[in-house]
């Protein structure tokens, strides 16, 4: 996906719901989208790409992408330091970046915030539940902004409402991405007809926690193993083994987030032979160990829940 390419637009009803919720809490603008970091986790990442779908001041999205502000946006770096939502205003940002020599790109970014009347807000970002490629990490990024000059107005009620909006926007964005990806796979016409591909995918979905061989999948498609393996990759862009592994990791991500099962229990439940093998594959795919992924997701869930209760 190229920089600036959009996911399918959210439905008008969902967009209206978010807009109303945003105004009820006191924010004026909402930006949300996907950010991709290319390279191995823990190493210097190279090219970054942003996939944005926004409800923001006219011209802000274009300016943000054109100037590649996502490469130096101090809000992203500051939020990443703690892994929790960041409440910011202009004085706070200037204070946090003021100890280092002036970076002209940062100064341009801060000037653009002021130019577009973005003076305070809340930012949150976290890895997608379902990563698309093993060589990059996709981050869900959500920002609520206001023209108010400081962040003092953001009390517990405001923070709780903001977190509910962020969770809904990020969840919807992930689901839209996943749906678009599945639709692309099913619509792809190669030597494997779409209805056969759909039948195989349904079989994998129903048996993802059980041992699944390429022969099993080939029998569902009524093809030889060799013919099926070649056709499946042409139709889906992945080998049968890669697809099954991806679905198991997606299920594992949900179990890490929503249950207290041990890493060994989760590895066994989603079809891996050992916890160590699961951990290696999970880290390669998600850029985090299973334990680190769980800590980040659980920490965010607890903060969102507590803020919602206080609101």
Descriptive report:
- With 311 residues, the chain is an alpha+beta fold.
- The chain folds into 2 domains: 12-172, Transcription factor LuxR-like, autoinducer-binding domain (Beta-Lactamase, 2-Layer Sandwich); 182-297, Homeodomain-like (Arc Repressor Mutant, subunit A, Orthogonal Bundle).
- The chain is built from 13 helices and 5 strands.
- The chain has a 5-stranded antiparallel sheet with strand order 2-1-5-4-3, with helices on both faces.
- The chain is elongated and about 65 Å long.
- The two termini are 38 Å apart.
- This is HTH araC/xylS-type domain-containing protein.
- Keywords: DNA-binding, Transcription, Transcription regulation.
């Amino acid at each position: 996906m190229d920089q600036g390419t959009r996911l399918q637009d959210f439905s008008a009803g969902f967009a209206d719901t978010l807009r109303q919720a945003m105004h009820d809490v006191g924010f004026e603008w909402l930006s949300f989208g996907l950010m991709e970091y290319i390279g191995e986790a823990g190493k210097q990442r190279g090219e970054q790409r942003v996939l944005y779908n926004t409800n923001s001041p006219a011209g802000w999205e274009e300016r943000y992408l054109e100037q590649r502000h996502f490469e130096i946006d101090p809000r992203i770096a500051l939020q990443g330091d703690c892994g929790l939502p960041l409440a910011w205003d202009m004085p706070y940002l200037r204070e946090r970046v003021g100890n280092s020599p002036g970076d002209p790109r940062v100064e341009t970014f801060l000037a653009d915030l002021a130019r577009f009347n973005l003076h305070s807000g809340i930012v949150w970002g976290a890895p997608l539940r379902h990563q698309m490629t093993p060589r990059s990490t996709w981050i869900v990024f959500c920002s609520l902004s206001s023209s108010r000059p400081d962040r003092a107005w953001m009390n517990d009620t405001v923070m709780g409402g903001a977190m509910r909006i962020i969770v809904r926007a990020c969840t919807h964005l992930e689901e839209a991405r996943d749906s678009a990806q599945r639709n692309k796979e099913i619509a792809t016409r190669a030597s494997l007809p779409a209805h056969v591909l759909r039948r195989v995918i349904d079989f994998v979905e129903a048996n993802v926690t059980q041992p699944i061989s390429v022969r099993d999948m080939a029998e569902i498609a009524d093809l030889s193993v060799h013919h099926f393996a070649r056709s499946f990759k042409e139709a889906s862009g992945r080998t049968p083994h890669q697809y099954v592994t991806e679905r198991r990791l997606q299920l594992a991500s949900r179990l890490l987030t929503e249950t207290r099962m041990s890493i060994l229990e989760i590895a066994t439940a989603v079809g891996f032979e050992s916890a160590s093998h699961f951990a290696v594959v999970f880290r390669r795919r998600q850029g985090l160990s299973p334990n680190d992924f769980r800590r980040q997701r659980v920490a965010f869930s607890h903060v969102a829940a507590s803020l919602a209760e206080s609101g």
